[in-house]
Design brief:
The protein is an alpha+beta fold. Helix content is about 25%, strand content about 35%. The chain contains 5 helices and 7 strands.
Length: about 170
């Protein structure tokens, strides 16, 4: 079973400055939406330019998506449009370590994906990039009212100045 947007690119077919267009079909969008916990994913496409340096593959491009998530407070649908540039470096899975050994990644390595065998999974990397690009706590226009009714304080009320204002208000009483 694919993770949702499998688009495997054989290493021997990657040419420098090659542009690849990826467009997720309905079934792929449904699988990705399910994996990411989205209400719907009506569009997912990306254009990618590939560069190869021996076993390192650099993929640069732009991801576009249209989706609906559930509001964290009300459960109502929240529409979101993603239009993000990305850069991913695919490198071979390290072979000279123990399987459970931790690998240290620096800030510049955050968009590094390991691969095994003779191909990279560009589609899954694009879907993972989408997961990192969407709003982590989507809120509908009714979210503030629902949170207030549930007794959740706003950031201003919960912060140090909110606590100070509450103390001053008590002193005035």
């Amino acid at each position: 079973m694919t993770k949702g947007f499998g688009h495997s690119v054989p290493l021997d077919q990657i040419r420098d400055c090659e542009r690849i267009e990826l467009i997720a079909d309905e079934g792929e969008r449904e699988r990705i939406a399910e994996r990411l916990g989205l209400r719907s994913l009506s569009r997912l496409d990306a254009h990618v330019t590939m560069e190869r340096e021996k076993d390192r593959i650099r993929a640069r491009g732009r991801l576009r998506a249209s989706l609906d998530q559930s509001c964290v407070a009300t459960g109502e649908p929240v529409a979101e449009h993603v239009d993000e540039p990305f850069e991913i470096v695919f490198v071979p899975e390290p072979r000279d370590g123990r399987p459970d050994e931790e690998i240290e990644l620096g800030a510049g390595d955050c968009d590094t994906v390991f691969y095994e065998g003779g191909a990279i999974d560009l589609g899954t990397a694009v879907a993972d990039t989408l997961a990192l690009s969407i709003e982590p706590y989507p809120r509908s226009p009714n979210a503030e009212d629902a949170l207030r009714e549930a007794g959740v304080m706003s950031e201003a009320e919960a912060g140090p100045f909110g606590a100070l204002a509450k103390l001053l208000k008590q002193d005035d009483s």
